[in-house]
Write a structure and sequence with these properties.
homodimer; alpha/beta; UDP-N-acetylmuramoyl-L-alanine:D-glutamate ligase; nine-stranded mixed beta sheet; four-stranded mixed beta sheet
């Protein structure tokens, strides 16, 4: 099934306890597209880049079934740039530099060829941009998921509430869920957030896995315990891309399939963190994914004897 | 199968964001015995109390199949007293008062009637006390599990290393595992701790569940997401008691059965935190446990469609 991805394509400079890289490829759209391309095509990308974004990165994604009809290239502009430093726990980080560059003028136009996309992922962007995308869609997709962050809760809460009323699923981390709801208990936080609009909620907890909420049902997915997390950048976007890519392939939106999609997203995210940037995602094979998913089954599976 | 429990029977004074209690019943032995008594008997308790410990608490446990042949009562002594205050996350706490009282002179004597106990739990006590118990056992039990804490790593590391070489399973929380191993990654920490002796390791992560390690195998058990954690005191001891009580009933020490035992321990711990002290454990029914275990199955269960 066709998948619409709205997200950034960018450059990152990263520092982790394991090393440092300057200006590598990044962006929520990039990570999500690599992840989703393991499961679904076409992937209809909506993004904006400057003239400095390498054509070979775009071509590599095209070869994986990604369409760039919705990519705006600003020839004399510079691509979005983010620089950050991770702490030892790899769950917290300091932002060193945020250069919006062309992202400041991002006003996405959904091409006619993208109409009818049945699965939609709105990456972490200004809520006004996410709203604009939803308003341009001529038919309601089967599933719309979105990401956001604490920054938008601080500066654009009204718009954020509007877009929350337009989507099916919100994906945030635990501290964002607490900030958005004003509740410390994640169960209480989930109820308040679901009342804001999204029927489904995923709360990501880094090395502690993720929780999926739907009505009174909860699913707890473990994270794969890893010897080393090399670089967590993009893990959340990879999770999101794997999640919606898998659902687009199965094309049957049920809570049971969402549970499997959470595992699939977690499996892909566990690869993403093994190397700096999206490089691990670019070399990933179907066999590796299957093996990793089996590791998750062994990790979570149990049987009670009476 | 018979179960030997070595732990404290004590008084606690507690403060949580939900309230405050003065001088209620506590102690690792008390919590573990209540939990284990749902599954196994006899439970052979080894502990020490002062003349101030209420006889009705002892009688209530006797009615559940707990033997007190190994309880030392010091008529003119005072029972161990601990007072603490929990922070909002309920995973961290400040100790306000630790009055060892009779615990300072605890030199357990294993009664002849306890010899042959096949399952042994060494609660969090001075490693020298844990060693003394092991040396008094005339036959090697099928399974010996132990708890410890950061305090013993600071003041009795040599003894701690000795007892680690005598047990099958260590149960600690994540910060204790990191301190004991000097490794931040829990996977690396587990390898180092297993090299110290225990074949099995359980790392408890509070609201994030628990990890069970055995050779290269890992099992990740979720914690039940709760609206409120009323009082986490005793949750770890309840987990331990439920874990070993279930294994004693099944009487077949395999990794698969340990996975189920971790779920059983987690289920009992999820009740323990619902009220102050052991009161919730005292009123618990078999039906409630079965319902709660089914909640864990729903929480963790998934199926991957191709």
């Amino acid at each position: 099934m066709s998948l619409l991805l709205v997200g950034t394509m960018a450059f990152d400079a990263l520092e982790t306890p394991f090393g440092k890289v300057d200006r590598i490829i990044g962006g929520s759209g990039t990570y999500a597209a690599w992840a989703a391309s393991n499961f679904a095509k076409p992937i209809n990308m909506v993004s904006i880049v400057g003239g400095d974004f390498p054509q070979e990165e775009i071509s590599a994604l095209e070869a994986r079934g990604v369409s760039f009809d919705g990519l705006e290239v600003v020839p004399d502009g510079k691509s979005f740039f983010w620089s950050g430093k991770y702490h030892m726990d790899m769950n917290t980080r300091d932002t060193l530099v945020t250069d919006l560059n062309v992202l400041a003028q991002f006003d996405p136009k959904i091409p006619e060829s993208y109409q009818g996309s049945e699965y939609v992922m709105l990456g972490n962007l200004a809520p006004a941009v996410q709203i604009s995308v939803m308003k341009q869609l001529k038919s309601r997709p089967k599933l719309v998921i979105m990401d956001t962050m604490n920054f938008w809760m601080d500066v654009a809460m009204d718009d954020l509430k509007t877009i929350l009323g337009m989507v099916d699923l919100l994906m945030v981390n635990d501290s964002e869920a607490r900030q958005l709801s004003g509740e410390y208990s994640l169960v209480k936080a989930a109820k308040k957030i679901q009342a804001m609009g999204p029927k489904y909620l995923i709360i990501k907890k880094g090395e502690h896995g993720a929780l999926l909420f739907f009505n009174e049902q909860i699913f707890a997915a473990p994270a794969l315990p890893l010897e080393d997390v090399f670089d967590p950048t993009g893990a959340g976007d990879t999770f999101a891309g794997g999640f919606i890519g898998y659902l687009a392939r199965i094309n049957d939106v049920t809570f049971e399939n969402m549970k499997a999609a959470v595992i699939m997203g977690s499996a892909l995210a566990s690869f993403c963190v093994e190397k700096f940037g999206p490089s691990r995602m670019q070399e990933l094979t179907a066999e590796e994914i299957e093996t990793r998913v089996n590791e998750f089954i062994n990790l979570a599976n149990f049987e009670i004897r009476k």
